[in-house]
Amino acid sequence: MTEAPDLETEAGRAAYRKELRAVAMPVRTAGLALILLAAVFVVVASREMFGLTEDAIIIGYGMLALGWVLVITAVFMRTRHHRQRMQTLKRETSS
User: Fold this and answer.
1) Are 80 and 20 in contact (CB under 8 A)?
2) Helices (H), ranges, 10-55
3) How far apart are CA 10 and CA 26, in angstroms?
């Protein structure tokens, strides 16, 4: 982690929001992309387009589930980062 931002100032809070948005960004982005791809895959498979059968819908649902697992994992990673950052900030201010 980098030096803790000063949350008493607007610039410090903006820097912290930017830092928090960047936490687990690749995981969150991959999850959302997989959810969108899965939705398209399920629709295409349900209409039996491109030679996909209805059995392929199961694969689409699996992709959908994996996408949500990634998004929820990103939320937990961000929450853990925030909790650790606040503990670090509390230790620095109490010293």
Assistant:
1) no
2) 10-22, 25-46
3) 27
